[in-house]
């Protein structure tokens, strides 16, 4: 298998806001901390959970961070993942890209099993030849490196995502990238990471010649 297009999940294929915000607040309540408005928590959609809680719980040790992550995951695995919403046009775009012969996979900061459940539940899994999650590598950049090491990707592979972490994962490994502007990374954030191209709407991806 050779992957042509690597897609991020949260903020690129699906809008996870409801489930993630509720799961963050569930974790904060479990630790006796006050809930936060959704607007304050949106910035943590995409980065690894440990990194998010280090910011949300400054000065906390590894044990507290681990407790927060566990509380988040308990709610998210039980309920939160079902609260996703597929962005409008995504199914059509993926179908079009597949019809052009592109082999696609998902590269996400979520665990592989959870990402696979989401893709299956929202009928996205038929479009993808593989799902690669955070349990396979410590960072998204390292995850892409592993895919290259195993000859699943090449210099011709593109990374498509909404956050700087996605773009840097491509850049760090010599790949090209598309920064999408319908997710949770601002235009300013993405511009700083210098993606190869931008896409304002999912349908814009149909007009890109990935080669």
List the helices and strands and how they pair.
Blueprint: E1 5-7, E2 14-15, H1 17-30, H2 38-41, H3 49-56, H4 62-78, E3 85-86, H5 90-99, E4 104-107, H6 112-121, E5 130-132, H7 140-149, E6 158-161, H8 164-172, E7 176-180, H9 187-193, E8 197-199
Parallel strand pairs: 1-4, 1-6, 4-5, 6-7, 7-8
Antiparallel strand pairs: 2-3
GO cellular component, one term: cytosol
Organism: Desulfolithobacter dissulfuricans
GO molecular function, one term: protein tyrosine kinase activity
Task: Explain the overall architecture.
42% of the residues lie in helices and 12% in strands. The strands form two sheets. Strands 5-4-1-6-7-8 form a six-stranded parallel beta sheet, with helices on both faces. A two-stranded antiparallel sheet has the order 2-3. Helix 1 packs across helix 4 and helix 3 crosses helix 4. It is globular and about 50 Å long.
């Amino acid at each position: 298998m050779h992957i042509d297009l690597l897609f991020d999940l949260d903020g690129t294929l699906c809008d996870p806001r409801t489930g993630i915000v509720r799961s963050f607040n569930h974790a904060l309540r479990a630790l006796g901390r006050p809930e936060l408005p959704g607007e304050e928590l949106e910035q943590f959609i995409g980065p690894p959970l440990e990194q998010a809680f280090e910011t949300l719980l400054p000065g906390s040790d590894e044990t507290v961070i681990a407790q927060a992550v566990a509380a988040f995951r308990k709610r998210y695995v039980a309920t939160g993942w079902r609260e996703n919403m597929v962005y409008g046009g995504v199914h059509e775009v993926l179908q079009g890209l597949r019809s052009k012969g592109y082999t696609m996979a998902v590269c996400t900061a979520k665990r592989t099993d959870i990402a696979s459940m989401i893709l299956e539940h929202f009928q996205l899994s038929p479009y993808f030849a593989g799902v690669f999650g955070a349990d396979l590598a410590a960072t998204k950049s390292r995850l892409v490196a592993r895919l290259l090491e195993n000859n699943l990707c090449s210099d011709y592979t593109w990374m498509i995502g909404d956050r700087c972490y996605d773009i840097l994962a491509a850049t760090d490994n010599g790949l090209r990238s598309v920064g999408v502007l319908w997710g949770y990374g601002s235009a300013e954030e993405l511009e700083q990471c210098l993606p190869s191209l931008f896409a304002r709407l999912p349908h814009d991806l149909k007009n890109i010649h990935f080669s």
